[in-house]
Amino acid sequence: MRTRYLLPVLTVITAMSLTGCVNNSEPAATAATSGSSGTADAVAVKKNDSLAASLPEKIKSAGVLNVGMANNYPPNEFKDENGAPAGWAVDLTKALGDVLGLKVNFDIGTFDNILPAVKAGKDDMGVSSFTDTLEREKQVDFVNYYSAGIQWAAPKGKTVDPDNACGLKVAVQATTYQDTHEVPAKSKACTDAGKPAINIFKYDAQDQATNALVVGQVDAMSADSPVTLYAISKTKDKLQTAGDAFEVAPYGMPVAKDSAFTPVLQKALQSLIDDGTYNKILAKWGVESGGVKTAALNVAAKG
Predict the structure, then answer these.
(1) Handedness of CA 239, 244, 249, 251 (dihedral sign)
(2) Boundary (domain end) residue, out of 247, 273, 292
(3) pTM, entire model
(4) Residue 117: C-alpha distances to residues 76, 142, 193 (Å)
């Protein structure tokens, strides 16, 4: 996911497995199996006949919802020990498919190919922890489904201040907001003040960034708050938060500009919020703090 250039994958020999931020069997083992209907832990989701009838004919006749996704950003979207899609966003997307009476096909690829695929009509939508930004809204519309901040992590016992990280080595997942905006802006503030730049280490996958921090190759890492907290929980007390979460912003499911599917998706998500399914899914993964009450559209443009 989010590839710009690829650093060599680290080979880490530790007491833990860091496949998808350490141990994807928990809670991934309880996640719904790829291709199955419904969400994990027997969250019953009924088809909404009215919403299903309002689907664009292309999607309705196919009976399939094609969803672009990168699968290496746990706990949001990743692959379980069997290689199947897992994560709370995967559970939520499957629930949306159930509401609309559609089989969900996860079109797994790199993060930077998802928006072009949605724009071209190859995928009906995407779900890959996209921060809804004005720049991205020029390409697609976003149905907003979560609110996440940025959270840094550091080795246990080491004090790191994200606002005073000049000269430090900081790991990010390549082409994420942290890579393209947040950490470079902090680095520029350093150099503008005559201080050393932040040395940004870019990794193809979040587990690689986490590995780099665990083994001491970098001093800190920056990622979305649910991702960082999940990584910390899976590293057996080797990591800790560095400062508080900041720059809270919405996640959005990208849909082609002015697509007839957008209002249907928005209503389907709102129905899951209203009937409690949405909160049950978030609670299962421990990420309910970022839950929303309204399935909004293009929040970035609304300020």
Answers:
(1) positive
(2) 247
(3) 0.78
(4) 20, 15, 41
